[in-house]
Specification:
There is one protein chain. The chain is built from 9 helices and 12 strands. The protein has about 300 residues and is an alpha/beta fold. It has one domain: Luciferase-like domain (TIM Barrel, Alpha-Beta Barrel). The strands form 2 sheets. Strands 1, 2, 3, 4, 5, 8, 9, 10, 11 and 12 form a 10-stranded parallel sheet that branches. The protein has a two-stranded antiparallel sheet with strand order 6-7. Helix 7 links the parallel strand 9 and strand 10. Helix 1 crosses helix 2, helix 3 (about 80-95) packs across helix 5 and helix 6 (about 175-185) crosses helix 7. This is LLM class flavin-dependent oxidoreductase. InterPro entries: Luciferase-like_dom, Luciferase-like_sf, SsuD_RutA_monooxygenase. GO terms for molecular function: alkanesulfonate monooxygenase activity.
Length: about 300
Amino acid sequence: MGDYGLPLEFGYFLIPNVGDPLLVRARLADRLGLDLIGVQDHPYQRSYVETWTLLSMVAAVTERIKVFPDVASLPLRPPAVLAKAAASLDVLSGGRVELGLGAGSFWDAIEAYGGPRRTTGKARAALDEAITIIRGLWSGERSVRFEGEHYRVAGARSGPVPAHPIGIWLGVYGPKALALTGARADGWLPSSPYAPPDKLPELNARIDEAAAAAGREPGAIRRIYNINGTITDGPSGGFLNGPAEQWAEELTDVAVAYGMDSFVLWAEGDQETQLRRFAEEVVPEVRARVARERKG
């Protein structure tokens, strides 16, 4: 495992706090030339606005940046309706939607909101079923049928067809869920606090092994990394906690040595300052360094 050679992308993890200037920050990310805006999906969190509503507003007030749930909480999102929402926003935004998808966590809160409580195995099985249904609802087929343990659709009419091939990116960590990613998903979407760089080789290897077993090319699976940290002017305080030069060095290493191709800033501290510094000081340097490494 190493550099899969996929094009680099950079994004911003927009925390959906109801009192924050969310659309102002989204427009700033767009103007600064970032590629992605991801929004976590916790409908039961009282201080957050609803994720798909926010993504729709973000798409409406921006021009080029792509949007995605980071990641959608499947137990609270029926897959057929989730497919419809993603395809609809993709059409309305001119092909600027991807789909981050999670099996579920925070089960007490999910259950309080009327969702099912699932074991790890059942959550993974439901995720597998959901991928089948979502892709069926994007296919344009006249009648989509599926009968599973957790979900069923009986002659569902698919449509609209997305404006571009929407990627399904799984935010998962367990061995069997990583195997599902390799076998069926378009991308893997971990977060650095839960999958630090020293863990990436092992986790990526599980994806690659499953992809090869399924007859897929491992290098075709995107690796999108939510990166938590702070850009400072002081000495290093650990991974992604230090000056922009340190960030550029560490992210270049994560790209060329550990195979991650996209980086979504999950910033601590003043959000506008961090966002500007990331886009203006870190991103261009990482692009330049990775390009040199790939040529050399």
